[in-house]
Amino acid sequence: MAKFHRNASMVILLALLASGCLAPLSNSFTARSLGTGKIGLDGEMLAVVRQEDSVVLPAFTIAIGLSSDFDLGVQIESASMGVFGKYSFINNKERGFSLAGVLGAGAVADGSYAYAGPVLSYKAKSFEPYLVGRLNYVHYGESEDLFEDILWEAGTYTYVQFTLGSIFWLTQSIGLNVEGSAFAGNLGLADFEDFGASSFVVLGGVKVRF
Question: Does the model's pTM come out above 0.90?
């Protein structure tokens, strides 16, 4: 019974993580911009994975290129929604390295989030690996007793998310992407301080460009 209780607690915890109690878990940015007037649609499934448990939930992103180097978009992950802006300082759209900075902010369950970080990517003919380092700020307005022994404390927390991924472009406008993320810092979990050190996020999805 104790083992069942522990496993049930972890499933609920993982579902809340992926549904919006943190900043967005998906990080599938490349450093290239969309281009003026171009639209990008991303549909993804992300999994928060531990040795004991995992949970899979959807994520969506829509963005538009407002200039040759700047994109503005919306991120949706179950119970969270926010906006982001990405500026490409080095923008090799056909082939080569690109470098960008991304900023985002939005609402999560019982709180809000903001994040910022660099994006590095390399465009080959049909292969585009990317690396993202993101500093996240999250504020919880109320403490949440999630499942008897799991407490999500009210307050302000910062943590870092590192993401390595790649897009495999089937055509110039349709691609498949995979990525993995790891965490470091305080996520605001009173009873699971080791969560960030022992967990990671994997993601797979489809990208469409218009």
Answer: no
Sign of CA dihedral 207, 205, 128, 132: positive
- Following DSSP, what letter does each residue of 119-182 receive, concatenated? EEEEE-SSEEEEEEEEEEEEEESS-EE-SSS-EE-SEEEEEEEEEEEEEEESSSSEEEEEEEEE
> Please, are residues 152 and 135 in contact by the beta-carbon 8 Å criterion?
no
Summarised one tens digit per residue, pLDDT across range 157-182 is 888 999 999 999 999 899 999 999 88
Three-state SS for 68-90 is CCEEEEEEEECCEEEEEEEEEEE
pLDDT, one tens digit per residue, over 66-120 is 999 999 999 998 767 899 999 999 999 889 999 999 999 998 777 889 999 999 9
The percent helix, strand, coil of the chain (3-state, each to 5) is 10, 60, 30
Amino acid at 102: V
Residues 73, 203: Cα–Cα separation, whole Å: 19
Query: Was domain 2-209 assigned CATH 3.30.260.10?
Result: no
In contact, 93 and 120? CB cutoff 8 Å: no
Residue 92 token pair? 């090799």
